[in-house]
Amino acid sequence: MSSTEPLVRFENIQKSYDGQILVVKNLNLDVDTGEFLTMLGPSGSGKTTCLMMLAGFEPATHGEIFLKDQPINRVPPHKRGIGMVFQNYALFPHMTVAENLSFPLEVRNMDKAERETRINRALDMVQLGKFGDRRPAQLSGGQAQRVAVARALVFDPDLVLMDEPLGALDKNLREQMQYEIKHIHETLGVTVVYVTHDQSEALTMSNRIAVFNDGVIQQLAPPSALYEKPDNAFVANFIGENNRLLGRVASVDGNSCRVDVDGGGSVIANPINIDGEGSRTTLSLRPERVSVRPDPDSQPNIFDAKVEELIYLGDHIRTRVGVCGHNDFVIKIPNSSDHASLQVGDAIKVGWNVEDCRALDASD
Amino acid sequence: MNTDLAQSNVNESGEMITADGVPLRISLLRAKKRARNRALLLVAPLFLFILVTFFIPIISMLFRSVENQVVGDVLHRTVPLLQQWDEHGSDLPNEEIYAALAEDFKEAFENKSAGSVGRRLNYEQSGFSGLFRSTNRKARKLEPPFKEALIKVDKDWGDIDVWRVLKRESGSYTLSYYLAALDSSYTPTGEVYKNDASNSIYLPLFWRTLWMSLLITVLCLILAYPISYLLSTLPIKTSNLLMILVLLPFWTSLLVRTSAWIALLQKEGVINDLLVAIRFIGDDQRLTMIHNATGTIVAMTHVLLPFMVLPLYSVMKTIPPSYMRAARSLGATPFTAFVRIYMPNTVPGIGAGAILVFIISIGYYITPALVGGQSGTLISNFIAYHLSSSLNWGLAAALGTILLGAVMVLYIVYDKIVGIDNMKMG
To answer: CA-to-CA distance for A361 and A238, rounded, in angstroms?
Structure first.
């Protein structure tokens, strides 16, 4: 198989549970071999349904899914050879850890010596070499999670699906497990399709992220592109913190456009996803791309602002200001040695560059 | 003031203490006492109720299976003297013992208590009841020499075996009820022997009770497993409706249900009529399905089915569907996944349901009494018979104790094999 061939291809997939509402609307998606692809989206956006269709637990209402160029709509789950990590691990409680890992090998009629080699290798991979005799009930959340990962990988599948596997862990453990899963992916070169609603998880682990909303992929891009160059207002809002300024396009001029903001003020923005002059638009601006007390004339957009609230967060100070009639405008001021010192009620100037201020579709 | 915190919290004997210097352990006990007292108060009514209506009657019933005070109480002059008499010899007791017996009979006549001894000893050897009745009638007229007088009243008093039985059963406690319950008897000289097969009643009944209960349990499991699985996988609205159908027998009177089975299964009943109508059997070949073991098994399986469905359902409800999905994704066929992953996780429900059905059916009374006929009655029907008709409470108690013991043994075996902690009632 050449590396340009996608491992998984969704072709015009539609899914409905009740015959009235489409949960997944015409999905087309290629997953490359060796890739870590994350399906990210709010609950009810169709991401888990896509995963279940790929695993074979839900039939597609329309369209075809290909695995290694073979259509798999009619292949039952146990013949697809896809490893899967479930949300609550789904470790079999009546079996020890080693028996859990042995199960996929036994149903493949592997002999005992081979099974033991593989089980030990898989347990060592997740640093649980001595836990083979434990029952799942005797494991901590993180250990159970590792066993679930080891079990999904022990039979060497080409593809592993993970359905919000870290949802039940606390924050520190979750971050640690993110790195571990990422490292396992890099070491083994296995293809991973990962479902989560946690955007930081998606950003940390993925090669590419498919942002789902309302049954449609809103944007499919590597993490940095997704954060820095969101295609639409939903993605801009969903990934990272974002300032939204609603307005109307006054004029478009090549690589820039002028937008009259609803609360007053005229902003020069980067036209990404607008319908032309006179149309409604949402301006998207990352909080860390706003400068406080900029040099006059250094930036095209400079506005008066009033400091409303200061929240000290250690590495940065989250500053809420009122600007252009929007009171929920947030600026992140890094806690560097020469950062601007502000008091609530101060009248200041804030400014930003044209390319950082993206004019996107009018949401809501 | 001691500023060292670690030291101030420990007294000289090394115990942790509170800020006031009271040992921490005592302080904790005091704090817990109120909660404990309230908890005791909450359980007290039920505890007393169970003690008075359940434990005390059961203990007194168990005691009746060995109790044998009546002989020694009524014949209180005779019994001590009998201890010196050698029952293995060939001589009748001496005049002194006959005299004591005559005195005892005179007193028993006043107290009207001779009949109860006669009844008691009649369980050991028939004829005692009549012997005591006739002797009692003439008790006042007995004159020395008493040996001749008594033998004249009833020649059985000259039978050495009568005296042997009397001596054997003169103690305060007896095992003869248990012997009877196990289809054994004493020879007059006190050896135990097993009754021949034609006189064996209870051991075959125990076996029948055991295998029929086991069969009913297995039938319940076979019928309940699929329906419980269906109930646990259906959406809640549909499963509630189905659950009502399962529970319907619970809400119907036992008598109505059993009568319904009689209407269905009897010779002129619905099923036989149907089989004849479709010419599956001839009119002269109508099946006997009621008033025999078949009737008991069919009706009891129906009656006890909810006791199997409910624990199974509640256990299956807690098995996440992701177990089966995980097994499938790991490469198991639906059948393998079901047998190796799903079924082992339902063992607590199977255990609870099986124990429930088995223990209820091993002591079941009404249904076998109504539809059991000759071959379908269980041991409990005989216990009831001895309690209410033959009034041989000692034998009823012995049978009941053996049944209780058997259940206990099975329970322990179950605990050893499956583990009682594994059981889940709901």
So the answer is: 14
